[in-house]
Design the sequence.
């Protein structure tokens, strides 16, 4: 058995267990294998081991790998500049990193041109750390209101990147906070907003994130090993 299939098996068990703890089923949680820096051969091996969703954080990497990767659902999880929107709209089923009206408008423009509806998540900076991308919780409402004025963008949830820590418990508080916000929004009505995904949790803390209500986790190094950046 390859290290990838072994790692995936291990992660599957942990996801199922964390789902159970939070009163859900394994199938309620989507695992996104984060494939940044990895070539299409490695990615295809993961797909043949059962991976259905992959996440990339640079448009350039999506373009480079797109034609060589087996059929799979692509997610754009990294910071997106407005001048790169044209490379990801239509190729990715979900853009996790919408953090401004300007970016939302640019996605609308390209989605309209292609005659599609682009699904997106709003990226929230839940820890308040300066280095983190995403908007403040008090800015979410304005983006959701704005989505209602568009035709080719659908907001499907929230995403956050928790601080890097050796102890996943310290992120539990952040995860609980964004989960509360997520539930609050679910109880309101906005046009073009269907709050169904909460994308949080990475290799170091995905179990904690699921226990706190995540239903999408983005896991890279726990599947593929440590990344080597050129
Ligand atoms: C790289 C990345 C991940 C995965 O990180 P790992 O710690 O390797 O699991 C998840 N989310 C985002 C936004 C990333 O850029």
Sequence:
């Amino acid at each position: 058995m390859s290290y990838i299939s072994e790692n995936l098996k291990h992660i599957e068990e942990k996801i199922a267990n964390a789902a159970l703890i939070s009163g859900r089923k394994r199938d309620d949680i989507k695992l996104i294998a984060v494939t940044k820096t990895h070539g299409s051969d490695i990615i295809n091996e993961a797909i043949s081991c059962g991976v259905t969703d992959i996440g990339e954080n640079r448009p350039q990497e999506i373009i480079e790998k797109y034609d060589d990767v087996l059929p799979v659902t692509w997610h754009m999880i990294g910071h997106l500049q407005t001048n790169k929107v044209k490379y990801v709209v239509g190729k990715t089923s979900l853009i996790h990193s919408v953090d401004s009206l300007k970016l939302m408008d640019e996605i609308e423009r390209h989605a309209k041109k292609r005659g599609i509806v682009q699904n997106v998540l709003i990226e929230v900076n839940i820890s308040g750390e300066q280095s983190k991308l995403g908007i403040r919780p008090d800015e979410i409402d304005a983006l959701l209101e704005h989505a209602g004025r568009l035709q080719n963008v659908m907001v499907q949830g929230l995403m956050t990147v928790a601080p890097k820590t050796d102890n996943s418990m310290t992120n539990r508080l952040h995860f609980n906070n964004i989960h509360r916000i997520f539930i609050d929004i679910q109880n309101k009505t906005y046009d073009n907003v269907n709050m169904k995904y909460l994308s949080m949790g990475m290799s170091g803390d995905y179990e904690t994130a699921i226990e706190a209500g995540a239903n999408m986790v983005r896991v890279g190094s726990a599947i593929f090993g440590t990344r080597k950046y050129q």
